[in-house]
TrEMBL record:
Residues 257-292, 388-421 are annotated as: Disordered. The lineage of its organism: Archaea, Methanobacteriati, Methanobacteriota, Stenosarchaea group, Halobacteria. Keywords: ATP-binding, Nucleotide-binding, Transport. InterPro entries: AAA+_ATPase, ABC_transp_ATP-bind, ABC_transporter-like_ATP-bd, ABC_transporter-like_CS, Oligopep_ABC_C, P-loop_NTPase. This is ABC transporter ATP-binding protein. Residues 10-260 form the ABC transporter domain. It comes from the Archaea. It comes from Halorussus aquaticus. GO terms for molecular function: ATP binding. Belongs to the ABC transporter superfamily. The keyword Nucleotide-binding applies. Residues 405-421 have a biased composition (Basic and acidic residues). It holds the Pfam family oligo_HPY. GO terms for biological process: transmembrane transport.
Amino acid sequence: MTDSPSESLLSVRGLTKHYPVTEGPLRREVGRIRAVDGVDFEVERGETLGLVGESGCGKSTVATTLMGLEDPTAGRITFDGVGVADRDDADRREFRRRAGMVFQDPTSSFDPRMTVGESVAEPLAIHGLDDADRRREIVADLLERVGLSADDADRYPHEFSGGQKQRAALARSLVLNPDLLVADEPVSALDVSVQAGVLSLLDDLQREFDLAVLLISHDMAVVREICDRVAVMYLGEIVEVGPTESVLADPQHPYTRALTASVPRPDPDQRGSGVRLSGDVPSPADPPSGCRFHTRCPEVIPPEGYDFEQDDWRAVMDLRTALAADDFDTEGVRRSASAVRERFGLPEELPDSDAEAVVSEAIDSLTADDREAARRLLAEEFETVCETDPPDLRATEVGHPAACHLHDSAAAESPRAESDD
Ligand SMILES: Nc1ncnc2c1ncn2[C@@H]1O[C@H](COP(=O)(O)OP(=O)(O)OP(=O)(O)O)[C@@H](O)[C@H]1O
């Protein structure tokens, strides 16, 4: 059943994976970890798409659901025009032949009791190539193509370094001549000194085998090396996607700006040094309302009717986030207004007297131990679109899409955040 002959090799629509949180002997569902929450993307034939984001944002879960290692909660995955869920057993087998995977830890790809040659040849035997001599030939050829030698086929995994093992894992993933390779953090477990070599090997193999590659990484510098396009993920959602060059040169989402800030760029004037993300990644069991990044965003949009410096506004939002989570009285800051201001980086007095009046009243409530009154006052007075409305992923002025209210027409009229990018 082909949906359309001109479709992308891989198309993912509304992909969602929630893990239930259960309690008690009856394993009653009390919540859900929203590991992946409605993700759309395509991988075209012969292209390398990078999926990038901090640890825990759902990248590996995208990989395991699209490879069929886990069932998605919702969404449609189409490979070469056929829905993966619509496949019968024979079709699934064919899908497994045409889509290979390499993992972060190359050791997991090998049975320590088998020679590397036997491991690399295993998929061939499973898929019906009975001729052992032919299998050996194919393995020898592949080992050479990944920079090992044909003789390495007779060695055992423990005799290989990490980099060599990952090269052999690449050989194994390519032995059935797939069209798609999903590489989940393929270099992050390797010594820095060998990472570049394995990455450039992956790049060469992609061209040589005309592979489509989905490269998963937390590291924008890795993605920049070999990806044609990049999709940026935050807490289960894609927040920006576009050609790598365009996303890196002109990131349209504050999260992407923060991720790219640490990547050295050829033009020092463009270096986004000093972008600071406040707080930790929130739990995907209870993601923030509106834009999920608003609790950490250095460019969160100030409320209408007040005149905030961006850093002061971020400080107020940090105070609000802490009040909502009730996690900040450890250092006794409740006892003094100046301790609260110092803790959150608030000035002694905000330039806008109206904003200052609200903040001091809230801090007074807090120091009088009425945390709830402080939380409510700040939430009522300082509501931002970033916390109320989830932004859609849509085209920006530079072309590629991003999901951020800074690109809404109304928001675009308000003063742009004075971040350091
Ligand atoms: N089997 C599972 N059961 C419950 N929660 C899970 C399961 N697998 C992943 N998660 C949770 O889902 C979220 C996304 O995890 P995932 O591994 O996909 O993220 P990631 O971006 O690949 O991060 P990392 O690089 O650290 O693996 C995390 O909060 C993780 O704890």
